[in-house]
Every structure is written in structure tokens, then in C-alpha cells.
Amino acid sequence: MNESYKEFWNGVRAEIPLLIGVFPFGMIYGALALNAGLSTAASQLMSSMIFAGSAQFITAQLVHDAAPAFVIIVTIAVVNLRHMLYSASLAPYLEHLSVRWKAVLSYLLTDEAYAPSILNYEKNGVQPFSHWFLFGAGFSLWFNWQVSTALGIFLGAAIPAEWPLDFALPLTFIAMVVPILKNRPMVASALSAGLAAVLAHSLPFKLGIILAALTGILVGTILEGRVSTRRAQ
Question: In angstroms, rounded to a whole number, what is the distance separating the alpha carbons of residues 75 and 58?
Fold first, then answer.
């Protein structure tokens, strides 16, 4: 087994603990997508093309509400702004790669793939085949997401439409967010975004989600900047 395959499987092994938590999340999306009115094919293709859990949940709801395409696109863009930060963080380690490799890795870059990959780069630096680690982590997550979505769609077809599944989405996000709130800027960002979402809930086409995301990002950025300034003094 050459070095590229070794790094690939190292990435897969590092991702396995996270896959356990992602699998039920994909199943929930598959079931909710059907209940939102999306076809089986559209629900599965969204997992293959968009490959972003939070964006897929929101898109399914916006499609159900017959929101304009522009609103859907802007909402997805705002929700996924964090991926710009992930990309900027990984850029120094990937700048030597070809455009083809960068395109593949950018498609596979998610929250769960970023976490073990950046730790690997910070520990080992740039190695000749280190990008295969990110590829292994990202691909294993992609495969897991496709399978879990398909299973959720299959099971969702057997679930009565009157069963309220919407509660699963906020519970899932709460479970994902709470463990990472480790300092005041993070807590303030989450609370401000939550408050903005509640206050703007009545806005059409789920525009309150965009406002909440921007509010959380702004508050977190300002407070984090103040903390960094104090540390530098």
C-alpha cells in the first residue's frame, strides 16, 4: 500500500467517530425532505449535489413554502459562509495542488471533514500525500451521507405525513452546537442568532434565518476581535 492510500485510510479512520453522529442526521433529512414535498429523486440528488446538511434542511423547507429561487440561493450562501473560513484555514496547506484536486477537495469540505484534517495538518505539516487525508475524510463522509439519506427516504415513505418530524431539526442542531460553545464570543454569537431568529420568525420565505445568521456572525466577530485585542495588549 503506497503513501497516498495510507493517508486516505488515515482520513477515513479519523472520520469514523463523526460518521456515527452524522448518519442519523442524514436519515432525518431524507424523511423530512419527503414530508416537505420533494420527490425521492430530488431529495437524494440534493445530498449528492449540495452535500450540506443545514443547507439541505433549509432548502427543503423553502421549496415547500414556494420561495423564489433567489431567496433559496441567498439563504444557502449565508448559511454556508463558514466554509469560506474553513477554506482560508486550509489554503496554505493545499496551495501546491492542481486545480482539479482543489475542486474535488472543496466539494468534499464540510464541518466534519475539516476538523480532523486541520488537526492533521497542524500536527504533521504539509507532506507529499497529506491531501489524501482530507480526501479520505471527505469521501467517507460523502458516502455516509448518501447512504443515510437514502435510508431516511426509504423509511420516510412509510411514516404517516401527519407525524410531526420538524422538531428533529432544532434538536439535532442544538446537540451539535452546545458542545462547542466554549467561550464568551461563541455563547454570545449563538444566543444573539437564536434571539434574532425568534424575533424575525414572521418574515416571509424564512428570511429570518438569514438575519439570524448574519447577526450571530457579526456579534461573534466583534467580540472575538475585542478578546484578541486584549490579549495583544
Answer: 8
Query: Other CB atoms closer than 10 Å to residue 215's CB: what's the count?
Result: 19
Tally of CA atoms within 13 A in the half-sphere of 21 that contains its CB: 11
CB atoms within 10 A of CB 199: 13
Of 209 and 113, the structure prediction assigns the larger pLDDT to 113
Q: Could you write out the DSSP letters of every residue in the chain?
A: --HHHHHHHHHHHHHHHHHHHHHHHHHHHHHHHHHTT--HHHHHHHHHHT--HHHHHHHHHHHHTT--HHHHHHHHHHHTTHHHHHHHHHHHHHTTS-HHHHHHHHHH--HHHHHHHHHHHHHH---TTTHHHHHHHHHHHHHHHHHHHHHHHHHHTTS-TTS--TTHHHHHHHHHHGGG--SHHHHHHHHHHHHHHHHTTTSGGGHHHHHHHHHHHHHHHHHHHHHHHHHH-
Q: Tell me how far CA of residue 162 lies from CA of 32, 34, 156, 165, 233, in angstroms.
A: 12, 12, 12, 9, 58
112-152 pLDDT per residue, tens: 888 888 888 888 888 888 899 999 999 999 999 999 999 98
For 56-72, write each residue's pLDDT tens digit. 888 888 888 888 888 88
Question: What pLDDT is recorded for position 108?
Answer: 94
What is the rounded distance in angstroms from the CA atom of residue 59 to the CA atom of residue 205? 10
For the beta carbon of residue 170, count every other beta carbon within 10 angstroms.
Answer: 11
Q: Is the pLDDT of residue 55 over 60?
A: yes
Q: Give the Cα separation of 62 and 60 in Å (integer).
A: 6
